[in-house]
What does this fold into?
Amino acid sequence: MSSMNDKLNEIMSMAGQFTFSEITKRQFSVNIKSSGLLSVLGLLRQKGFTHLSLITGIDRLNDEKFEVVYTLFCWESGETILVSTLVDRKTPVLPTIMEIWPVARFYERDVHEFFGIVFDGNPDLKPLILEKWSEIPPMRKDFDPHKYSKEHFPDRKYSADFLPEGGGEDE
Amino acid sequence: MNNEQTAWERVANMLRARSLWMLYYCTGCGAIELPPTMTARFDMERFGIGPMATPRQADILLVTGYLSTKTLRRVIYSYEQMQAPKYIVGFGSCTINGGIYYDSYATINRLDLYVPVDLYLAGCMPRPEAIVNGFKNLMDKIDRGEATGWKDYEANYEWYRKNQIDALGEVYIHDEFHE
Amino acid sequence: MALGGTIATVLFIPAGNLVVFPGLDNVFVIIYLLAIGLLGMAMSAVGSGNPNASIGIGRALTQMLGYELPFMIVLLGVFFHFRTSSLSELAMLQNSGGTYNVLIMPIGAVVGFVSLMGMLGKKPFDTFIAPAEIASGPLVEYSGKYLGLLMTQHAFGTFIEIGLFVNLFLGGGKTIWEFLLKFFLVYFLAVIISSIMPRFRVEQAVKFYWKWPLILSFIQVVIVVFIMGRRV
Amino acid sequence: MSKEVKLFIGPNHPGMHGNASVHLYVEGDTVVKSRLVPGFLHRGFEKLMERRTWMQNLALIPRICVPEPDINEMVYAMAIEALAKVEVPERAHWIRMLILELARIASHLMALGGIGGSTGLYTMPNWTLADRDLILDIFEKITGARIYHMYIVPGGVRKDLPEGIKADILKLVDYIEGRSEEFENLLLKNRIIRTRTKGLGVLTREDALKLGISGVALRATGLPNDLRKIAPYARYDHVQFEVPTATEGDAFARFTLKYYEIGQSLRILRQIVEKIPDGPVNIRISEGSALRWKVPAGSVYAHVESSRGEYGYFVVSDGSERPYRINVRGASFPQGLYGIEKLLPGTRIEDVALWLATMDFCPPEIDR
It folds into this structure.
């Protein structure tokens, strides 16, 4: 495994500043700035991480950042690398990685729909799953589904008499 | 409300109950229990209930579990395409009051605000035995002439339409192909 | 119209000794009337505007192209041999001669049976009412009474086609019961075969028809013309 | 140029297992352009999971993908154990493998039934689903439920196996193996199925890798990529089995591989029943009542080889009682969205339903 780390360190040093940590014996996570994104991912692909498993968006509300994690997997060695970058919450723009992995077009479209992160260079950022959605992107932390569901989809009122006096409709 | 049936209606209901055709449309997670119910082990062909491809020729529309807004639109299309004596069976607690997805922004909580439901089946995904038993109840209900969901859909159509508009914005999509 | 055409055809099928129009039951009359029934269904289905229906009709007609050719060639062989084309006479000749056509023309009988499967739309060749792909093809927009009409039309069609086959190859039977017995046997055989066969694609079905059954029917005609000669 | 017809293999279509709409642009009988519109089964799982505590999510996660619910529980448990740096007792590993292999066979049988259904061979679904029901009976004995078991929990397995279950499993394995000869005659040696699926939807190796396709479709192009071998989890490294591969990469290769994988899974089941050790079956992740578990902060991606391909969860925890973010990666996401757009043009209409059945594409994995 250690050979793997040196190989990684050598790639990373080329891509500039990064933080590197090992999660399990076959999984590493790397945090880089969004500027070095394309070069690092391209390098990793040559190093055998040919399979793009997933692009995940995470809404770090309290420090006003979106985190986007690219999960890469290498079929030969069975190792996973999580390449994550931070991007500002107000103007979330990231370069698209469609040239490296064509399938990324759909992952990016999914993340765009649920977080509102714009991937410039991705031709079709049309809505993929939701239809006629007028609210803010639903996966953001400041969107409350329970309130939305209460307003839009009325439900049956139960007059349950077993509730303790203090109890009642939950929050 | 036991309505007295004319002789002809009673015969018609009896015949109708014996050969219900189920629309083969899996709207939710309960649909995984339909193939075992249709095939060899819990065969519902014995009751004359068989899967049918087109809404035109189907009598029962199964709403199997939760119903997302997008599917609700298609369920309304299919329901309105079906011919008059039509029945809707709601599976599980998701159709009664939202079930496990009570707080989801994409699923409706109460089915009978949008389409008239004739029969509810209990079980978070009812078992094949429960489905067959439910169909037996539906057949008895039809025999007694009480399964008249479709009649009150036509009667208070505006009320249903208003609910549908509230939930969906507008029911019929024009650019179905999302050009 | 579909149902009317088909009912008209049924009148001409001699079922055992029950012959409605003695002089007129010529095979060509039946083939012609059968087409009316199918055309009626075709036009009403395409009128329904559902793309599935028009695709279904397209398939039904191409498949008809497939199975008509070998069936016709075998029929010519039979007519040439028996020197007549009226069904009741053919049945009577077979009974008097004691040998059924299926014995003296086994290849013709096999080709007849395979194209019968096509006519009935039994499993290997039922692409035009394929539920899994085009949602029961032409019948997609029918329901209630109209579906009932078409179902009876299909039932009549089945009776005609199998009746034709029984008269041509199995001697038609002296009494109505013998005819019905043979009818049941042929139908049962068709159902058994169709329950273990998946569906052909349309062009595969036509290719299949124009490969084996066509060659067999040519061999059959050659045998009939040169070896068996004309019946006295 | 003949008129281009727009056709729905829409949500309400017998050929479609599940609920997604394929828009086809058809010329004559061949598909010119095709596109998948998912989203009909979208319930916003990832949002709901953030509102429930770690233990409450257990009731929610198996409901994501219906034909094979156990992989969700397994991946969820693996992710939490990786974050909490907890080692599960030996016996729990073996029981988990038992559940996963039974679920794989059930899902494969369901897929083979689907292939029979879309080609009109209705005896096939009757047989496969009847056998699948026997497996569900065994699930009922072990976990108490037919489809949603909620049996694999973080920290091991909910309760131990009932006695006499080993005999039932062996009886089931012998029964299914006994029937394999009939299955082969009906499906693999069936000439019409062979002519219909030979050369349908050929997938080259570069395309498969570029599309990010995993599972049977990738193995049909010759690459023995199976997560159970490459990144073994549970106790797959203690069990002998091969990964069947083919070279043509067409629909016929795909469903024969599915069939041979059932044989391999039966072999694994036999070895599990022999080698399963005794001992405790679960341990606690953190102290306090199960509903108040706190998982240490961190993010991890756990993935498993499901019957359709690589299935994984990306779990992020901020140390509180509720997960901060869980992202579900279904195996059908690349196969469905990109595969349908790229591979379907050129096939005929009759084969679209068959292509979907052999690619075994499960819409709830895309919509989550």
